[in-house]
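Fresh eyes needed here. I'd like your take on this protein's tokenised backbone:
***
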Amino acid sequence: MTTHDSAISLRSIAVGGLGVAATAVLLFSFSFPATAWALAGFGPWTATGLRGVLAALVAGSCLAVSRAPLPRRQDWPGIAVVSLGCVVGFPLLTTLALRASSTAHSAVVIGMLPMATAVWAALRTRSRQPRLFWGAAGAGAAVVLAFTVQQSAGRPGLADAYLFAALLVCAAGYAEGGLLARRGMPGWQVIGWAVVVALPVTALTCALALPREPVHLTAHALAGLAYVGGVSQFGGFVLWYRGMAAIGVPRASQLQLAQPLLTLAWAALLLGEHLPAAAPVTALLVIACIAVTQRARG
């Protein structure tokens, strides 16, 4: 194979990884509206537990059918971080936040998540990104943060504390999962083992919460629960970690700058929430930041 052929092959992988990661972001953008639907029929602890159990059943079946090998000993700490951050911590904290905050406001978590993920990954790998990358990433995060803070009239509350904690634990899970995928573990196995490892916790949560929280079975509640369990907690991560493995954790994470704006659109269309007039301007600024981060070279 010539150097030219190798360059074309690497470029094709990068382009394909970009598309896969972008698809995952689109799928994740429906997570908050779907969670809001689920909360119409289930309590926050019940919804979180059932979400994890459903994901574990799907992932466990896939792992068993494919006869996936057990992770290597050195991979288990990373899987534990993914499990605690993405399977238990983030779903619970954001679900609690959505009980006291609108879907639009809660999108602040996703708005700050790319920067937090990139920082975590850079610290873990001790890698250096160009100043242009960090400048664009910081600008994009600042734009989204300013937008969401302005919408909340600058009065942080308990929901914001939940969201900030969710941001930290999810960033750790995203980065560790991406690093595992880059080291050779298929992305679907990363999240698959993570949800299976969390099954004792999510099952116990269900057992304790179901008798104590009211349940109202509706079509919206069941659809929302099915989505967050099958897509937000497993299917979306399969694509997300695959994209991270192809283009790297820091650059893939910046694609999520677009997620809050997509979530705002779905909140308006699916939940009837008011879409702020500043959203189109914010969208253009965020897209510009994403374009710069994708062109930056380390």
Observations:
- The mean pLDDT is 84.
- The chain has 14 helices and no strands.
- The CA atoms of residues 178 and 244 lie 5 Å apart.
